[in-house]
Amino acid sequence: xxxxxQWMDSETGETxxxxxxxxxxxxxxxxxxxxxxxxxxxxxxxxxxPVWSGLTAxxxxxxxxxxxxxxxxxxxxxxxxxxxxxxxxxxxxLEEVDAAxxxxxxxxxxxxxxxxxxxxxxxxxxxxxxxxQPVGVAALITPWNYPxxxxxxxxxxxxxxxxxxxxxxxxxxxxxxxxxxxxxEKTGLPPGxxxxxxxxxxxxxxxxxxxxxxxxxxxxxSTEVGKQLIQSSAGQVKRLxxxxxxxxxxxxxxxxxxDRAVKAAVGNKFENCGQMCNxxxxxxxxxxxxxxxxxxxxxxxxxxxxxxxxxxGTQIGPVIDEAGxxxxxxxxxxxxxxxxxxxxxxxxxxxxxxxxxxxxxxxVLSDVTYxxxxxxxxxxxxxxxxxxxxxxxxxxKRVNDTPYGLAxxxxxxxxxKAFMAAERLEFGMVAVNGTSLSVPQAPFGGIKESGQGRxxxxxxxxxxxxxxxxxxxx
Length: 474
Ligand code: ADP
Description:
Elements: E1 2-3, E2 6-7, E3 15-19, E4 26-31, H1 35-54, H2 57-73, H3 75-86, H4 90-110, E5 117-119, E6 126-134, E7 137-141, H5 149-161, E8 164-168, H6 174-186, E9 194-196, H7 201-210, E10 214-220, H8 223-233, E11 239-243, E12 248-252, H9 258-269, E13 280-286, H10 290-302, H11 322-337, E14 341-344, E15 348-349, E16 359-360, E17 363-366, H12 373-376, E18 383-389, H13 392-400, E19 407-411, H14 415-424, E20 429-432, E21 451-452, H15 457-462, E22 465-473
Parallel strand pairs: 7-8, 7-10, 8-9, 10-11, 12-13, 12-19, 13-18, 17-18, 19-20
Antiparallel strand pairs: 1-2, 3-4, 5-6, 6-22, 11-21, 14-17, 15-16
Helix pairs in contact: 1-7, 2-4, 2-5, 2-6, 3-4, 3-6, 4-5, 9-10
This protein binds adenosine-5'-diphosphate.
């Protein structure tokens, strides 16, 4: 853990081990911190706040730009570590590390663009100033699926805004966060501005929530834990940003280019072994195209190379752990029981060198219907269920009929339909004829039970700023 500029173990000396999901081997361990260390970290952040928030925005930004440089310099070892603890192919880990650096660089620039406003007064001698100020100490809780970008996307925005932070990474993938903090230390960041606590999530979460000095929580993870955080934040009315679960549809309209839609579907659906909150959950294809779509999709999915992420050519790694894999297997069993057809995959991969990992075969399901759990729940695994539809109006209603609202994708060549569907879809993000969403300048986030608040762009920084209005009377 990194607290007040010092690297330290937990008070009790206890640790948690990090296991490689591809082969079950030990990758390393981190301290099992709890309430004591969390309180220490919050104190350190609180003490560092006046100095950090008092720096010029340009100075704060320069640390972030240096952090980006350090990350880029260490991209290979950082990506390898990420692959070992998380499982994703090295090529994807490298992309993630590059994206992590981009977020830090972008916020390093954006720090300088926090502004205010002067409004017309209500009396001749009144001046109204609106200024933005950092909220104070922010707690950042990150998930295991993107262990590098989730850290910088939150932390760079918070630091740029002038907040000091306590980071609690997911227990499955804390080593990437440790490495990132070591690189941040190299920038010469003043002690206590950023702190890292690893260990028991619920205990650390509770300590953060009960601490009056923590004014903001930024969380990415399950809807279930997100709801707990909303409840526990009520006592002190803490500000919250939540990036929670999703159920993203991909709609392939009757006039879509099938090749392009299939390629994008595979790229998005099978990225990170299907473990992406904004990843496509279910694919809805117009009945006129469905046969061709399924054929191309199955062909591509069948050829995906499953294996150890660190071996060249691997495209699909393991599911993060046994519980995750079991959930995927259960959803597929449910679909098959209700009449879905398995066109490829549909089983655990346990042969040869994959025996000690948590691998699941890349899967395509056809004849999928709305009573199947795969259409209602977030799959979070390498399974592509395909639903055939005929009525465009009905399909828009159907996909909106979910408690989630993070991302939606569709393909069409009709400009009219593109605008109509983009506006009708009840999701925080919509991608048309493509799937790229997470970029530094754009507001990433969801509506309904997918969360609140945004990450990325100036929107992401607003989350860490309070608005103050000063009525000045001359
Ligand atoms: P996932 O399903 O992605 O594992 P979780 O919501 O369980 O999602 O975890 C996301 C992050 O939240 C992780 O860093 C995890 O350690 C942390 N976490 C889990 N439970 C709590 C809690 N009760 N309070 C605060 N953080 C928590």
